[in-house]
TrEMBL record:
Record bears the keyword Protease: yes
Provenance organism: Mesorhizobium australicum (strain HAMBI 3006 / LMG 24608 / WSM2073)
Family to which the UniProt record says this protein belongs: Belongs to the SOS response-associated peptidase family.
Protease is among the record's keywords: yes
Listed name of the protein: Abasic site processing protein
GO process annotations (BP): protein-DNA covalent cross-linking repair; proteolysis
Enzyme class: hydrolase
Enzyme Commission identifier(s): 3.4.-.-
MF annotations from Gene Ontology: lyase activity; peptidase activity; single-stranded DNA binding
UniProt keyword annotations, A-Z: Covalent protein-DNA linkage, DNA damage, DNA-binding, Hydrolase, Lyase, Protease
Pfam family, one: SRAP
Organism classification: Bacteria, Pseudomonadati, Pseudomonadota, Alphaproteobacteria, Hyphomicrobiales
Amino acid sequence: MCGRVFVKSTIPDMVRRFEFAHPGDVERLGNGFPVWNGAPSLTYPIIVREELSTSMAGFVSAKWGLVPGWARDGGGRPPPVNARCETIASNGMFRKAYAARRCLVPVDGYFEWQKLDVSGKKKQPYAIAMKDDEPFAMAGVWEEYADKATGELIRTFAVVTCEPNTLMATIHDRMPVILAPADYMRWLGPELDPRDLMKPYPSELMKMWPIDRKVGSPRNNTPDIIDEIGVGPNDLFDV
């Protein structure tokens, strides 16, 4: 799965790095970034196709945790933050968004936890990023629902996940779908089922390193969250 990210770029930097997309309304998020320990329910910059009939892309802001348009007042249960690529085209929660509302989720990296015992209570957190430290885009899907009280349209998204590559398989059985830049516009395009894009990203282009357990609390949101640590018996912790 993918349930925590870091965005060490400022909003202007992110817009410059993904210059094919119009800045849109994301400048208002500027005071909230960088985010060193980004959790679901927060609002992030994502990239969507501006109109179904065009090939133009633009940044918009959206809350992490997908709520379909038919949900009343945002739904009741916690919204899903991930969509499995194997069932995304058939799952009623995601299939319409997958067919018509796909998005890019730009980040600098994400976090994952390796289980270190059978119970799953002892885990070691890792940070994962590109080997060249450049930001990258995870595949996502997005939706909108109307706030019951105000009528305001609330945009939400989920990150698509797939089987792990050989690097990620050493710590977890899933990873986010990471798209190559050459595939960005195809993922955003009108194609109903670009299934072949939902595959593990090449291990040789990625890196990961162990980090401190304080990443477990989203309240800890400082640059040292992604500092590498040595891994030993004292690094194990209960979650």
